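Let's sit down with a protein and look at its sequence and fold side by side. We need material for that, and I hope you will provide a protein of your own picking. Once you have written the record down, we can walk along the chain together.

***
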Amino acid sequence: MRLLETTRMNSWEILLIALGLAMDCFAVSLGIGTNGMKKTARMVLRLAFHFGLFQGGMAFIGWLAGRQIAGLISSFDHWLAFFLLLWVGGRMVIGSTKQEEECRKTDPTRGGSLVALSVATSIDALAVGLSLAIVDGSIFISSSIIGLTSFALSVSGYLLGDKLGCRFGKRMELLGGLLLIGIGIRVLLSHLLGT
């Protein structure tokens, strides 16, 4: 990241990075919010908490790892994100074809789906953490800003998806699943094509 290749970063730069990282959280939360399930505050907070925790935590882990682990992770991080998003997105696409009663039993804010989404949306934060170690940034402030921004955008995306889901039903769940698959393809292609 060219933006990080300076001697120090100011708060605005960190906030812009946090917003960039949180856009995947927003998009994924938007997709999940369309699943047609009855929403509770607990579900919204659980999803946003995990996304924020993983984003901030991965930035911190990346900072701790420094340059030594960068080569190991960069060789497969795009594949990991691709397969995790493909798996969860595929489940949502399949869920959009099921009867309403079956669909309500699936809660993507719990269990393996939640962990898979949290990891998939936070892999880029690991690379940012590595960059922060190089520029000697304040990791506690940076990872907190990254986590809180991801939390806020996850809540916003989930609630917006819920509104769209109530209006358009199963079509929005299908769209949400395709959105997750599209994000996975974008991550994979951007790494393979070097863009």
User: Anything to note?
Assistant: The two ends are 12 Å apart (CA to CA). Residues 189 and 195 are 8 Å apart (CA to CA).
